[in-house]
Design a protein that fits this description.
It is a single chain. By secondary structure, the protein is mainly beta. The chain has a single domain, classed as TolB, C-terminal domain (Neuraminidase, 6 Propeller), CATH 2.120.10.30. Helix content is 5%, strand content 33%. It is built from two helices and 29 strands. The strands form six sheets. Strands 2, 22, 23, 24, 25, 26, 27, 28 and 29 form a nine-stranded mixed β-sheet that branches. It has a four-stranded antiparallel β-sheet with strand order 1-20-19-18. The longest helix is centred in the C-terminal third of the chain and has 12 residues. The protein is globular. The N terminus is likely disordered.
Length: 466
């Protein structure tokens, strides 16, 4: 009996109530050999081990245009800088140093230095944002009172949004003082820690969105959103927040609430909330063609999704998982997308897809409008974190589902491969244990380049044209 037939029988047997059709396999398989795009890549940079004690665990990479440098972070708490050519890799800041007082919590797969971003004025002397950048990091220090609480009794660690101010933005290493705490969120469980922080890269000085920080705050962890925060508009967890980190008029006096936020005139909703109903908001990306914001949101047991995030939008969690009602760690196939108040995914796939391995988690994300790699032009490029599978859909797709998802493979001398297969080959060459998962993330270059990070061989790879 095939896996698909078995899943169908399970769905029929699980029917409860009236028309409920519960399933753990809602989508047909992604076509493995149809419309596959094969692209070249180069090994762009290698990030060193931490004295041989840790795997690099690369997590995030951004461009700082004012100083014309790239920065990449690892989960254990080190931020590295390098030139636009990938040369001169230098540790820029080690958050673990005792003098900073951060006490980085990096145990397990999901905790550590989650994300970082530079203020758009970082390299512009004489501006309010000069020298300022932000880190989003898990901390074992739970002594201070938190600004954001989940509503539960547990507090495993805290998630800190920190502002750092370099005296000289062009310095090869951080030369400023200890960071300022913008906010502190008490994490009830060890998983689902934060997400990405980002400034809109399409916004320029004078725009309403300029200098406003988007903050992904996950649902607090465990599984299924047991504290029901995703739809609770008086709770910060399970949301995309938007704040002005240079202000001081917010509830804790450490940030401003933008007047253009969608709920500032609604007393029943926290003013910081930009969008709701997210589970584990890992990566954000803006589309240069129309300015829309997209999110790669990791699902529970069935659905991984890429979804547009409009101001005030509700992405549905934990009432919906993707296009389907979420019911006791399954999805209900009856009446998909039947709530007009929700925002539905642009693309989604399920955990039972035969292309994927072990755990499943969407990653990425890039809206590629450039013509440098013609095959990728006008594509949304994303991937699956553990398996290292790269995918694309048309950037103007609106229908959702998995039918339009196609693969991207990487060209090698031995044929086209997935990132996991390439990392495994690198492991063998290094004499390391072979990775069984790749833990892929994307990085962004100054001209729209797509970089591929992973947590297992320390190599940053860049997609290239023929």
């Amino acid at each position: 009996m095939t896996r698909r037939v078995l899943a169908t029988l399970v769905s029929l047997i699980a029917v409860s109530g009236h028309s409920q059709q519960l399933s753990t396999d809602p989508f047909p398989p992604i076509e493995a050999n149809v419309d596959v795009i094969a692209v070249n890549y180069v090994d762009f940079a290698t990030i060193p081990n931490d004295d041989g004690q840790y795997a690099p665990r690369l997590m995030h990479m951004v461009t700082e245009s004012g100083t014309q440098r790239l920065y990449v972070s690892n989960m254990i708490g080190i931020l590295y800088g390098m030139g636009y050519d990938g040369q001169g890799v230098t540790p820029y800041l080690d958050l673990r140093e005792e003098k900073w007082g951060v006490r980085v919590m990096s145990a397990g797969n999901e905790r550590g230095l989650q994300s970082f971003v530079f203020h758009p004025q970082f390299g512009e002397t004489g501006t309010p944002g000069y020298g300022k950048f932000y880190t989003y990091v898990d901390s074992s220090n739970t002594d201070p009172e938190p600004d954001y609480v989940s509503g539960g009794d547990r507090r495993t660690h805290d998630l800190l949004l920190l502002e750092w101010t370099a005296a000289n933005a062009n310095a090869a290493t951080y030369d400023g003082a200890a960071p300022r705490e913008v906010f502190r969120a008490a994490q009830p469980f060890p998983n689902h820690n934060g997400g990405q922080i980002a400034f809109n890269p399409l916004s320029t000085a004078g725009d309403d969105d300029f200098g406003l920080l988007y903050v992904g705050l996950a649902d607090g962890g465990s599984g299924g959103d047991p504290l029901n925060v995703g739809q609770n508009m008086q709770n910060y967890f399970g949301k995309i927040l938007r704040i002005d980190p240079l202000g001081s008029d917010g509830p804790n006096g450490e940030y401003d609430i933008p007047a253009s936020n969608p709920f500032v005139d609604d007393d029943s909703v926290l003013d910081e909330i930009y969008a709701s109903g997210v589970r584990n908001p890992q990566r954000l990306a803006w589309d240069s063609a129309d300015g829309r914001l997209l999110l790669a949101d990791i699902g529970q047991n069935q659905v991984e999704e890429i979804t547009e995030v409009p101001a005030g939008g509700n992405l549905g969690w934990n009432v919906w998982e993707g296009s389907y009602r979420y019911v006791d760690r399954q999805v209900d196939l009856s009446n998909p997308r039947s709530d007009d108040s929700m925002v539905w995914p642009i693309a989604e796939y399920d955990h039972a897809d035969p292309l994927l391995v072990q755990q499943v988690a969407v990653s990425g994300l890039s809206v590629y409008r450039d013509d440098t790699i013609p095959a990728l032009q006008n594509k949304i490029v994303f991937g699956d974190n553990p398996s290292g599978e790269l995918f694309y859909v048309d950037a103007d797709l609106e229908n959702g589902g998995s039918e339009a998802i196609r693969r991207i493979l990487l060209k090698t001398a031995d044929g086209n491969k997935t990132l996991l297969q390439i990392v495994q080959a690198q492991n063998a060459e290094n004499g390391d244990n072979e990775a069984v998962r790749v833990d892929m993330r994307f990085g962004a270059g100054p001209n729209g380049e797509i970089f591929l990070l992973n947590k297992h061989d320390g190599v940053v790879r860049m997609l290239t044209p023929e």
